[in-house]
Amino acid sequence: MSTSSNAPPPTRMLKNYENFDLSIEPATGGYRAQVITSPVGQASSLVMLPFDPSATPDQLQRIGGAIRAYQFGLADDAEKVTPLDPQHFGTQLFDAIFGGAIGVSLRRNLDLVRQRNAGLRIRLRLDEAPELAALPWEYLFDTTSQRFLVLSDETPIVRYLALPLAEAPLQTVRPLRLLVMMADASDVWPRLNVAEERARLQVALSDLVQRGDIEITWLTQATLQELQRTLRHGPFHLFHFIGHGWFDANTQNNGLILENEQGLGEPVDAQRLGVLLHNHPTLRLAFLNACEGARLVEGQALGGVAHHLMQQGLPAVIAMQFPVSDQAAITLAHEFYGALADHYPVDAALTEARVAIYGQKSVMEWGTPVLFMRAPDGNLWQTEQEETMSKENQTGPGIVSGVGSGIDIGGFSIGGNARDIVIGTVGAGAKNAVVGQGNRQTIYESGAPVPDDQQALEEHFARLFALLNSPTIDPRKAGRAESNLETLKAELTKVADGETPSATTITRLGDWLLDNVPELTQALTELFGLPTVAKVLGKAGDAAVQWWKGRLGKR
Q: Residue 429: exposed, middle, or buried by beta-carbon count in 10 A (0-12, 13-18, 19+)?
């Protein structure tokens, strides 16, 4: 571990990531795996997982206990399990999922993103098969490359939760302000050594504090009331919890065990905690750490808490699926928070931490952290340079949008491939631009839409809402689609000065609608082809434009 207080900023080129959305849902005789979004398109395959498809969530949870027993020679709650080699399990799971069309898609996607000097973020979507969330997917092992996927910065794995929630705008922050809560209720076993836990975290982050990258605030009491009071004195960007979780198998409810005023344990369900954190939009990440000696079931509890916190607006949560040793916890905190301070995306930062733990000859603890995300990418903050570029994009005097190759603006060739979509800023007063034969373009000044633009937008949304009455659309999906369209419409009408459309919200809702309601594809394609919508995408930034090109620009 480096202890230098003058560590230079990283010189390594940080990767951009493209998404490989892998959905798994029950099917006759097993499960169906589907690549629903990727740089090279979709794929689907029936798969047989390496266990009884009728296995209960509790039985699947014991697989994690067996892997933990492999290293530590013990089982949770004195239940006897046969130790399971994480590489052996990861190989079985990988071969089951990626042995056919899904594996072909993965290889093709990796070949493509390598050409772009990018990575491939594997987003697991297990909404339709929640029992599979108990499996330790972080041990997926590719025998061809002879490596665990999560130990490569090319292939981070996240548990993705698609939610129709607006994303808080990215902020430029330095230092990252970390709020730490350690709950040590006197009637909850095992007890925490609070002084020792605090000292470990201080050691882990000492050089980051000295460099001014991290600022730590320690809660004086681990009560819900003290957490609320402290949050009012923010802003805070990260919430780090050390303690116990709880899970009620009968009600399927879960949460964290905090303290009451007398120092006794107070179970706080995830919903209460989520409502409190929801009111602090600068908070972008929660780190939930079960202490060493905690029971295995607490991994299930912390995973449930992660889902609730994201439903309340938190973009990302890291939770431990197993208790973690002291040495691994120190390395994890230091390398993860250090990489975040160096402007790594959250998934790439976690990969850095995993590799560091693996380098300590840990058999399995590098796979203990689970990253849950609802954000479309891992960038939870932006650098000052990125903020400046974003402002320049939003305040440019005019915007040009074109579809085609060989687009020429002011003597500069912009387009490349036929039917590519191009959006560029041009000076005030620009009147035309040249496009390739058979292609089309639209040029307009920034500002509020003219009446014809507004009428066209209203007509297209009216058509989309009407299509939801189709008998081929599941009524449950139609209801969610209606809500998503309302939110999308609100973003696509943010054209006035001072209004900033959210690229994250636009792309996430667009993805959900295209993936889940294919009956809307043609109408959505026409909607996003409107000049006024192209202008909004340009204002939202490059992420929105690239999404447009990737999903709709080739139709």
A: exposed
Nearest to residue 409, comparing CAs of 419, 418, 400? Answer: 400
pTM (2 d.p.): 0.69
Total residue count of the chain as it appears in this document: 555
Classify residue 455 by burial, with Cβ atoms within 10 Å: 0-12, 13-18, 19+: exposed
Q: 176-382 is classed in which CATH architecture?
A: 3-Layer(aba) Sandwich (3.40)
- Note the pLDDT tens digit of each residue in 362-420: 778 899 899 999 887 888 876 555 555 444 444 443 344 444 444 433 333 344 444 44
Cα 116 to Cα 27, 111, 552, 553, distances in angstroms: 36, 9, 20, 18
- CB-based contacts of 451, cutoff 8 Å, min separation 6: none
Break the chain into its structural domains and give their ranges.
17-159, 176-382, 386-552
How far is residue 370's CA from residue 288's CA, in Å, rounded to a whole number?
10
Mean pLDDT of 352-361: 93
Whole-Å CA distances, 243 to 292, 323, 330: 9, 10, 15
How many Å is the Cα radius of gyration of the chain? 24
Residue 377 φ/ψ, nearest 5 degrees: -145, 180
- What is the CB-side half-sphere exposure of residue 60 using CA atoms within 13 A? 22
Give the DSSP letter of residue 530.
S
CA nearest neighbour of 73 among 87, 81, 189, 323: 81
DSSP string for residues in 286-328: EEEEEPTT--THHHHHHHHHHHHHHHTT-SEEEEESS---HHH
d(CA 252, CA 234): 33
Q: Return phi, psi of residue 540, to 5°.
A: -70, -25
Task: Give pLDDT tens digits for 10-64.
Answer: 444 556 899 999 999 999 888 999 999 899 989 999 998 887 655 655 666 667 6
Point out which residues pair with 413 in neighbouring strands. Answer: 408
Please report how the helices 542-552 and 503-516 are oriented relative to each other, as an axis angle in degrees rounded to 10.
20
Pairing state of beta strands 398-403 and 369-373? unpaired
Q: CA-to-CA distance for 380 and 306, rounded, in angstroms?
A: 16
